[in-house]
Amino acid sequence: MARNFKDLSEREILALAIALEEEDGRIYGDFVDGLRESYPATAQMFEEMQKEESGHRRSLIETYRQRFGEHIPLIRRQDVKGFVDRRPVWLIRPLRIDVVRKQAEIMELETRRFYERALERVTDASTRKLLGDLAEAERKHSALAESLEMKHLTPETRAQEEAAQRRLFMLQIVQPGLAGLMDGSVSTLAPLFAAAFATHKSWDAFLVGLAASVGAGISMGFAEALSDDGSLTGRGRPWVRGLICGLMTTAGGIGHTLPFLISDFRVATSVAVAIVAAELAAISFVRHRYMDTPFLAAAFQVVVGGVLVFLAGILIGSS
Fold it and tell me: Which of 40, 81, 169, 188 could lock onto 253 through a cystine, CB 3.0 to 4.6 A?
């Protein structure tokens, strides 16, 4: 059961401080390991911060030994009320650099506030001095983090890391999503409009379009997830890519299928055609925005394929 900080003895407070510094140092080490390949400058910054945490821990252990002896009781942040549960973002690969920097900022703020609040609750002179020294150390550590960021993260380095982050976003999110959206928007046109023009019934066309969209989503999702494990390509977790690709594939097909819930066949078909045009335009924009493809070239590639599949569906359905 978690205890209140006010119930801790000076010995337990110092043991908790040691545990906090050790945990923060290990987290910074995980940040270094996860960022070294893609963001070497930020990894170096966290490596120096890890060294600072190790220095704080050594000083705290020496102080503890002088006052209380060799045995340090096991007391962790989760054993004391008031700490916020930390999401283990350091275990996620690949690490997002913005998430890492935010987590580091929260860690320093939380530890500093812990010492400052403890200082307000304790009346013993020696303990107050100890807590005051710890709070000052954390304030200096925050200043060190800022100075290290200025030292290692020059404007040129920031630009390089932002470019690397953009490439990772494109590989892990945009590309599988775009592949799914294109497949769902284009491949489902033929069965949907073939059923529509063969039956002239909105509900029948809707069922065919729904089945085609869901089926294509499942197929594309598995295909993307099994394509590679991301260890060499940097494309991230395969199940995440597969989920993104599958959902976007289904969404691409559902978009122009939903109008066939309209009972009037002509109205439903007209709305569906308009949605198809909007989908193809959106895909062209995404290719232009994130894949550096000229808009006209992207539009030509997408529209030509979409129109051919659309016409094939109409011809088959009308025969």
Answer: 188
Instruction: Say yes or no: 146 and 36 in one domain.
Output: yes
CATH code of the domain containing 23 = 1.20.1260.10
The 10s digit of each residue's pLDDT in 186-219 is 888 888 989 888 888 999 999 999 999 999 889 8
Domain tally, the chain = 2
Q: CA nearest 210: which of 263, 267, 250, 246? A: 250
Asked whether 224 and 180 are in contact (CB, 8 A), the reply is yes
Its domain, for residue 136, covers 5-153
Count Cα neighbours of 119 within 13 Å in the Cβ-side half-sphere.
15
Alpha helices for 188-237 (secondary structure H): 189-199, 202-225
The predicted-structure confidence for 240-257, as pLDDT tens digits, reads as follows 888 888 898 998 889 889
Candidates 176, 205, 177, 173; CA nearest to 191 is: 205
Pair 80, 5: CB distance under 8 Å:
yes
264 DSSP 8-state letter: S
Query: 233 falls in which pLDDT band (50, 70, 90)?
Result: very low
Burial class (CB in 10 A: 0-12, 13-18, 19+), 266: exposed
